[in-house]
Amino acid sequence: MIKTVIFSGMAAVALTAPAAIPLAINTDDVTLMLNVDDDGMLRQSYFGKRMADESYGPLDRGVEAFTTHGYTDQFEPALHINHADYNSSSVLKYVDHKVEEVKPGVTVTTINLADPVYNDAVSLVYTAYAPENVIACHSVITNNSKKDIELEKYASSMLSFYAPEYYLTEFSGDWGKEARMSSQPLRFGKKVIDTKLGARANAYVSPFFILSLDEPATETSGDVVLGTLAWTGNFRFNFEVDNQGLLRVISGINPYFSAYRLKKGESFVTPDFVFTYSKEGIGQASRNFHDWARNHKVKDGNGDRMTLLNNWEVTGTDFNDEKLIAMMHDAKELGVDMFLLDDGWFGNKYPRDNDLQGLGDWDIMEKKLPNGFAPIIEEGKKLGVKFGLWIEPEMVNPKSELYEKHPDWAVTIPNRDIYTKRHQLVLDLSNPEVQDYVFSIVDKLMTDWPDIAYFKWDCNSELTNVYSHYLGKDQENLYVDYVRGLYNVLDRIRDKYPDLPMMMCASGGGRCDFQGLEYFTEFWTSDDTDPVERIFIQYGMGQFMPSKVLCAHVARWNDDVKIKFRTNVAMMGKLGYDYNIHHLDEKELAYSKQAVKNYEKLKPAILDGDLYRLVSPYEGTHAVNQFMSKDGKLGAVFTFDIYPRWGENYYNVKFQGLDPSARYDIYEIDRFDAGDFKYGDYTGEYLMEVGLPILTGNRLHSRVYEIRKQ
Ligand code: DGJ
C-alpha cells in the first residue's frame, strides 16, 4: 500500500518565501537533514547518526543542497543548464515535497524545486531503505521553457561534509586487476574519480568510493560513508574541499562530452547515487550494502545461485560437440548445476574460431556443432545438468556479415580509419533499430532453444571512434543514450524472460554497477583467476557487492597454488569451475566433489549471510573472512596464509558477529584428504575477545572452519 503525504510551499511560479521547512530523510540509524530556508533555498543541515531528539535542536541554515552554476556559487555545481538565450545560470527554489511509503521500510521523499525565471523544474528524489540504512538519490530535470535547453552538468546527488580530516578510498584497476583499493587524504581543491570508456565503463575504475571522516576508518571503527552510482556507463564523483574546509561530493553521470540536449517538455532522469553511513566502520557499511543489494536491487537477490563448469579456460574456441558433451559429463562428475558454453560457437561465413571475426553473426557454427545445441542439451537433461550460453550482443567484428549489411550500426567515425579494440566495434545502442536487433539475439536463441537456462553477457570493448550515425547533431547524447538503449533492451529481456539468470561480464569486472545488476543475477569479477590476486580483487569488490554476485571460478592461473587453496578462494563467491577436471588426480577430484557439497551446505552463510572481514590481505601476508547466516546458527571462516614470513608473529584471529553468551562448535572442514575435525567449542565471547590461533607460516595454505551454534 502506498501512503502519500504532500506538503506544498509555493507554486512553481510566483515564489514567495515560505517558513523554514525541515525535511528529514531517515533510515533506522541515519538521518540526512534538509531544510528550506526563508529564501526558499534547499539546504543540507545534517548528515550522520539518527539522533534520539528528532528535532535536531536549533539547526543552522546549513549549506546549499544542490548548487547551480552561474549565480551565487563559485565551486563545482551540481547543475549547469545552458538556456536558449545564452543565459547559463540557474536558481532553484523550493516548490513542494511529497513523502510516500512505497513498501514497508522504504520511503520516497520527492522535493520539487524550480527556477522562477526559466521554470526549469528539478526534483530531488530520495529513497530511504530503513533497515538497511541505505539512501538512494537521483534528480529529475524537466525543461519547462519554450525552447530546447542543454544540460551541461546534471548530477544525481550532492552531499556536504564538515570534518577536520577526510580520507578517500578509491577502487582503480585494469583488465585482470580490478578494484585495487588505495586511500588518500583530501585537502583543499578537487579530486575526481571518473570513467570515460562508455561501454565496459568500469575497466579502469569501479564506481565506488569510501569516505572516512575525521580519521581513517577501520573495519570496526570510524565514521564512514560508502557511495556508488547505479549506472552502467560513464560516472563521475567530484570531491571538492573549499576555502572553509567544507567537502562537497557531487555524484552522477560523467558530463564529459555529454552536454545533453533536452527538448521542450522533456525530462531527464539521472541514475541513483546510493550511499550508506556507519559509525562502526567499513565492515558494517559493507553489510548495509550487501543487504540492500540482495533485498532491493540485484535480480533475484534473495534467490539461489547455480554452480557451474565453463569451458573458456579449458578449450578456448577450440571445441566440437563431442568435447562439449564430455564437459557436460565433467559437470555432472563435479556435482555442479550447469555447463556454460563460452565464446566460439557461432558464425558460418566468418567462423568465430578466434576473436578476429564472426562477432555479430549469431547463427550456430555448423562445422563445430552440426546439430546445434541439441546433443549437448539432451545429454544435460539426461544427467540433470543445465545448459548456459555466452553471448556478446552489443559488439561486432568488422569481419562479419552483420557489419557488411549494416556498417552504420557500428559506432565509427565516417571520415577516419576505424580503430578496433580486440578487433571489434561497438554497436550503436542509441539507435532503436539496433536495440531491436540486440533484443532479437536473445529472443531468437530462447525461442529456438528454450532449454537455455542462463546467459553470460560479455562486452569486451569500450566505445571507440566516438560518433553515432544515428544521432546527427546530438552527438553529445551518445554516451547517455547508449546506456539507455542498453537498458531498453535489458528491460525487454527481463519482461519476457523474468526468471532467466544472467552473468554480466566485460572482459572480467569491467562492468560492476548496481543498475546493471537489476538485470543480471551476478557478474564475472575478473578474468584473473590467479587465486592470490583473486583474494584482493574479491576483497575490493566485496566492499560493496555481496558474495552472491561475485562469480569466482576455480581455474588454472598460478601454478604454485594447490587445488584446495584455489577452491577455497572461489568458495567465497559464486562458485564455478573453468577447469579441465581430467588434470586433477584422484585425490584432487575427490576433494573437489566434496568441496562443491561443502559449498552447498555453507550457502546460507556465504551467499545470504553477513560478511566480517577479519584479516585484510592488504595488511600483509594473510586474509581471513567470516560469513554468518542471518539466523546466526551457521558460519564459515576462510583462512588464507599467502606468503607469510618465517619471522612474523601469528596473532589470534578474533571472530565477530556472534552471540557472546551462546556456545559454538568449531570444525575444520573441507580438509584435503581427511574428514571434518572438531577444533573445539567456545563461547561467542571467547571467540570474539580471545580468538583462535588459526594463522600459520605455511605458504599458499588455506583452511575452512565451520561455526555451528549449539
Ligand atoms: C572475456 C571474458 O571475460 C572471458 O571470460 C571470456 O568469456 C572471453 N571474453 C571470451 O571471449
SSE inventory with pairings:
Elements: E1 3-8, E2 21-26, E3 30-36, E4 42-49, E5 63-64, E6 79-82, E7 93-103, E8 106-114, E9 121-129, E10 134-142, E11 149-154, E12 157-162, E13 166-172, E14 180-186, E15 189-194, E16 208-213, E17 223-229, E18 235-241, E19 246-253, E20 260-262, E21 267-269, E22 273-278, H1 282-297, E23 308-310, H2 312-315, H3 321-334, E24 338-341, H4 374-383, E25 386-391, E26 395-396, H5 401-405, E27 425-426, H6 432-448, E28 452-457, H7 478-496, E29 502-504, E30 522-524, H8 531-541, E31 550-554, H9 563-571, E32 574-577, H10 586-606, E33 610-615, E34 622-628, E35 634-641, E36 663-669, E37 677-683, H11 684-689, E38 701-709
Parallel strand pairs: 23-24, 23-32, 24-25, 25-28, 28-29, 29-30, 30-31, 31-32
Antiparallel strand pairs: 1-7, 2-3, 3-4, 4-5, 6-11, 7-8, 8-9, 9-10, 10-21, 10-22, 11-20, 12-19, 13-14, 13-16, 15-18, 16-17, 17-22, 18-19, 26-27, 33-34, 34-35, 35-38, 36-37, 36-38
The structure holds (2R,3S,4R,5S)-2-(hydroxymethyl)piperidine-3,4,5-triol.
(2R,3S,4R,5S)-2-(hydroxymethyl)piperidine-3,4,5-triol (DGJ) binds next to loops.
Shape: globular
How many E-type strands? 38
- The multimeric state of the shown protein is single chain
How much beta, percentage-wise? 25-35%
Q: Termini separation (Å)?
A: 41 Å
Q: What is the average per-residue confidence, as pLDDT, rounded to a whole number? A: 95
Structural class: alpha+beta
What summary fits the major beta sheet?
11 strands, antiparallel
Which ions and ligands are bound to the chains? Answer: (2R,3S,4R,5S)-2-(hydroxymethyl)piperidine-3,4,5-triol
As a whole number of angstroms, the C-alpha radius of gyration is 26 Å
Helical content stands at: 10-25%
> Which regions have little confidence, pLDDT < 50, spanning 5+ residues?
1-19
